[in-house]
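Q: Structure tokens for this one, please.
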Amino acid sequence: MTTTPKTEKLVESGTLKLMSVLFLVILAYGGLMLYGNFLTKETESLKAQYTDQHANFMGEATKKVMDFQNRLVLSRELIGQERNINKDIDAVRAAISKGTYLASYKYDEATRTITLDCYSDNYGTIAKQILSFKNSSYFSSVSMGETKLDPKTNVINFSISLKIK
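A: Here is the predicted structure, written as tokens:
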């Protein structure tokens, strides 16, 4: 079999084309291997980020959700009660005399009693305050608690218990 320059050229050009195709395939394979490594690293990074976020959500956020749920339950119970705190405070505010200052407010659900810790600068104001609470139609009984005089400031601390009708 003899080869002519024409067939030799075809063989050479065919071989060159095959070599270039093989080179492109190897180059594409190498590129895909590098891209695969990049995707593996990216996947591991995303998994770590997901694990951190999941742990964060299950830790702190769950406590917040549970606390919010407890507040909802407590709010529903308070709404269901017949007593209205705003009415109690309005009644106390309306009966407070000039010169009497409120230090604390406590409510006992079992006895329906408000206990006020107040202070004033003289006993006459305290007597007027007790009379003002007794004349209020919101309270059924008024009882005076302990009275203490602070000699340094001449301020009288006293407590009053108010039974709600």
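A few notes: The domain at 85-164 is CATH 3.30.1360.100 (Gyrase A; domain 2). Helices lie at 5-80, 85-95, 123-135.
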